[in-house]
Amino acid sequence: MLNLAKSKDKTEKYLFKLEDGNLIESVLIFSDKRVTECISSQIGCKYNCLFCESGKKGFTRNLTVSEILNQVLFVKKKIESNLNNIVFTGIR
């Protein structure tokens, strides 16, 4: 992990550097009833939507299974509560 940013509402954003040098993010969201992790599944995007900054960078690749699982396992070790939900996000 390269960086951890925490917001006032206790949301945590983790920045990871992959073996090939690409960067991905995972976001941990705490609410009254559950803990949700939003994990990356791709680097970049094939679409060039006008409203989205990430798509303008182009598509690099899909993440491997181990890169996806490592996001969950890393964050799970860092929190004391149960991880209730996992949400896949497409891009960083």
From TrEMBL:
Its required cofactor(s), as named, are: [4Fe-4S] cluster
- Which Gene Ontology molecular-function terms are recorded? 4 iron, 4 sulfur cluster binding; catalytic activity; metal ion binding
Q: Where is the Radical SAM core domain?
A: 31-92
GO BP: rRNA base methylation; tRNA methylation
Q: Where are the transmembrane segments?
A: none
Gene3D superfamilies given in the database record = Aldolase class I
- Which InterPro entries is this protein grouped with? Aldolase_TIM, Methyltransferase_A, rSAM, rSAM_sf
What are the alphabetically sorted keywords of the record? Answer: 4Fe-4S, Iron, Iron-sulfur, Metal-binding, S-adenosyl-L-methionine
Q: What is this protein called?
A: Radical SAM core domain-containing protein
